[in-house]
């Protein structure tokens, strides 16, 4: 409530001050105030409409879009309040003269529409800023009702002060008022920077710099007055992350130095230009250092992946070797060529590349005949279904085939997962069989060879370890892109803008050539001629009623 009250009072008083200055000038010149009031009412209604429209749009968006819109509104609010505070710090002294000059021109044109437009634009600017700033503050406030009440109370107080200034019933030290409220608004704007960085993360726009820094829950416990002040008013969360801390200091320190550095210690024009160049050079050097030192994130070497069979027994491993994968399943070793492949998602890991190999081919090196005892051994210790030992005693002619599929998933050359479905089948004829019989087998065959039938897979712990490593590498890459690309670009752009502004000021100073002292003191000489009569003194102007005090900087 305090934050919205100060916002409403500050913005409302600026608008009221502008209106009261124009109204006082018009009253002295005997002009009607109706066009002025018409412009004020139109600006107030339009500002209300803009604020309500923004609120309705935000509340009807999906959650992520709401967070994104809150980020945009917060950034605009920070821009508005910064511009307003900086403008008032440099133009407050001459604001009265500028407004009266514009009003005099409007009166000279003989058009009341010019006066109405003048008041309309003056109040509309403050109204737009108030609507956006309050909307951003409402989003960060704990209670929308209290925030709205504070804003309304501040605006009412501003209107009353504006009328008192117009009527001459009160004289306010506007310099002290604007200085105090500028300091408070800078703190509120720094809090809005923190809030905007938080909503940008919630919207998925900013994922870097999310490391925890300090725990301020002892300073702002929930439900306490201190908590309402630090979190609700100043926008400082109890557990700020790194990017929020940096954003708070990056905004607050330069603004505070610019606004409140003692005037007697401010550098001269030449020194100020050199300081700007030095700051720009520092920004460029910082950008270069960040771009060069922030190294790309790489996945660590994770080694071979252990393989287990269908019963969970460890039987070997799989690893990469150049453009091939070596599958060691105990008694056999196979090589899988890594050609082609497709990129997709596997086990929650994006960007995994999968390679597939079909195993449908004849099985070589296996016996051409099998006895009944060998067949029983290959079938797990019992006669296969459809083979009667009494009617089909063997031996049988054997024709072998092998079918199945291998799939290997790699991430940056590391094995993420592997699966193999390998079925060896034998087709039996003769030996008393009336028809051929086909069955899948596995085990030790005559000659010592072993058929590793069934399936193979990577142990789940390896998949989880690789997924965690990929997640850490992805987070590190996000950090690298932000600190090694985005931040250097922002620093470089800021440095170039600062250099351009410095060059513009330096050019303007060179264009103003000082007049030598001898030329300033010498009187123009020429042929003697008649002397012009002195101008008639004008009668003194009639004293006018006192208007609002002009703000002065201290």
Helix content: 40-55%
Number of helices: 13
Write down how many β-strands occur, each being a DSSP E stretch of 2 or more residues.
14
Percent of residues in beta strands: 15-25%
The geometry reads as elongated
Largest sheet: 12 strands, antiparallel
Q: What multimeric state do the chains show?
A: single chain
Provide the structure class: alpha+beta
List keywords for this structure.
554 residues; disordered C terminus; 13 helices; alpha+beta; 2 domains
Overview of the molecule:
- The protein has helices at residues 2-28, 34-59, 63-91, 95-108, 112-140, 144-167, 174-202, 225-233, 242-260, 269-293, 372-378, 460-511, 517-521, and strands spanning 305-309, 314-321, 324-328, 333-337, 342-346, 349-358, 361-362, 369-370, 396-411, 414-429, 437-441, 443-444, 450-451, 454-458.
- The chain is α+β, with helices and mostly antiparallel strands and 554 residues long.
- The chain folds into two domains: 2-262, no CATH class; 305-472, no CATH class.
- The longest helix has 52 residues, at 460-511.
- The relative contact order is 0.11.
Task: Give the gist of this structure.
The protein is of the alpha+beta class and 554 residues long.
